[in-house]
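Why run this: before we spend reagent on co-expression, it is cheaper to look at a predicted model of the complex and decide which construct boundaries make sense. The entries below are exactly what would go into the expression plan.
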Amino acid sequence: MSIKKTLAVAALASVVAAGAAEARDQIRIVGSSTVYPFATSVAENFGKSTSFKTPVIESTGSGGGFKLFCAGVGEEHPDITNASRAVKKSEIERCAKNGVDKITEVKVGYDGIVLANSKQGKKMEITRKQIFLALAKDVPNAEGKLVPNPNQKWSDVDPSLPDVKIEVLGPPPTSGTRDAFAELALEGGCKQFPDIKAMKKTDKKKYKAVCHSVREDGAYIDAGENDNLIIQKLNANPDAFGVFGFSFLDQNSDSVQGSLIDGKSPEFELIADGSYPVSRPLFFYVKNAHIGQVPGMLEYLAEFTADKAWGDEGYLTDKGLIPMPQEERAKYKAAVEALGAGM
Amino acid sequence: MTELKESMQKAQARLKKRHAAETRFKAFGIGALVFAFLCVVMLFSSIISNGYTGFRQSYMKIDITFDESVIDPQGKRDFDTLNRADYGKIVKQSLYDFFPDVKKRGDKRTLSNLVSSNAAYTLRDMVVADPSLIGTSQSVWVMASDEVDMLIKNVFKREDDESTRPITNKEIAWVEKYESENRIETRFNTNFFTAGDSREPEQAGIRGALMGSALTMLITLALSFPCGVMAAIYLEEFAPKNKFTHIVEVNINNLAAVPSIVFGLLGLAIFLNIFGMPRSAPVAGGFVLALMTLPTIIIASRAALKSIPPSIMEAAIGVGASKMQAVFHHQLPLALPGILTGTIIGMAQALGETAPLLMIGMVAFIADVPGWINDPATVLPVQVYLWADSPERAFVEKTSAAIMVLLGFLITMNALAVLLRKKLERRW
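The model came back. Tokens follow.
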């Protein structure tokens, strides 16, 4: 009995002792699920080619990432947050309130958002205006008055589009991809109506509500955050379209095809030169106060900003990242190097 | 007489009806069984047919020249130089030499993607282990990239139109040249069991998640089993029957039905924010899952204790044992098989949980294999989820393979419990 007792006490003691926090020796990164595949790639290469531990990366979404990132300075808070949009003013304020007053923005590259369907279906050519008319909650009718979206088939929007029911699978409202799609595709089409554009000056709130609201009558279907699931559903239903990031189109080019938007197809080159209209920049944000405190920060940043990673032929392009032009890369690389010089 | 005959006939008709009802009921039972069986067969066949290829991996034999001017130009032969040298360049050079007529930049780049980026690390490990290799030429088996692997496994089909598959005709021609010289083979994927997570499907392994699950379960068991059994014994045998214990009992039953995410939030607030446990660590995960498993164990243990005939306790007390002796020497050993069953059900539930771990940061990309309970770790179901969410096609088979490993873990755990139960079971 006494041996058993000592064993039990020892086990309990070790558990409790292990529970106490100890100095962190690896980088912690949170944030956008769109940047996650790129950040994990860099982290893995960094872990393999240096003596530092591989950073731990959580995919929390851009908003969730800032929430954790801005919670404070210290080893229990993350060092870097990834974002598929620029930081908001409210988030900067939140950061500052918690003592995170110095953060450095690094743009990573671009991501295209595609509207795609199964290869068994016909490739579609569509404009942003038509996307708005097909997917917005309220659209202007012939007299220019806003009415609940009456379009049931693509051909109701424009006779040149296919005569099939509008069925679009896309990410839910919590997703950064959905935000970007609303901003770039829907709003892009929405402001081509002069009446609505004029509204921007007079009633900004209403303008945003009109341009960013996605219809809720079943034509747009929330398919969850899992883009692979959307692709599976597209294969099962050749009439349906899906909204997701370019990297998924790139990896599944054998089964799905991207629609041409405003005459541009979602190809690497066209997204890179900015002519494909639905693309957005990706970022990560570094907590300056942690540089020098957490081992390997500068080296990780150097790995990310090296040409072999984010360059035109870097390994991140294999993962579907659209790189920035040379000058822009040089600018952000210099900013990162300046962080090291400040130490 | 006629009366008797009539009632006989009536009885016979009723009997027939009753038999018919019984046959129907049997048929329904068999139908339910067949349906359940078909569901299981469907589940397993889909997982196995998707996943069995995940245990195999294509390798390519390439001719490597360990060029001294690339690896160690100054001839220092120290660990740091050897460890940091650009082995990727040597791998690329080998491929370029094999296809001397590939000249264009873009083509060269595609060509160098035939082998996994892991190849460079294979060479590094070779050279670090044996620096005398420098300057020699060797044939080395290295991992093929995931795309080549998918081609070899016929997931990307050669007969399909070029535009409908992610690998081009040119790449296929290159691969076929290697094939014609018997330089490609598929082997058992040991890497899958020895490596941690990776963003490259061919290099991704389950070891990290397996260790994470094992460590987390260890903590969960170490906490919830003793606590659960103690609580059950106290409530069943020693606690006074009053309003207070009644409320405790009702609440334990309620707790068993609380959604698991709630325990995650609790864990974040208490274990991480108040006790300062490390984020993403099995110790925090184990604590959270222990909370979740406790009610299951308490309820099952109480039922097991209750099922022991009171005569055994009475006899023990009758010959002068104290109540504690009677419980620990007689009642508890007899109840152990039942308690173990309950524990295993609770543990199996905990093994499959992801929701509570989300809040404490265990749903994350963690490449290093955890060594102990405070290293960052993830668990098997989380690994399944992360791979299912990755864009690369080759992760589909890895996902199913990981599910098989998870099921294997579960079956091992159950088998252990059955074994223990068999050993401890006593009849009276």
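Residues 167 and 240 of chain A are 5 Å apart (CA to CA). The longest helix of chain A spans residues 2-19. Bring this page to Monday's planning discussion.
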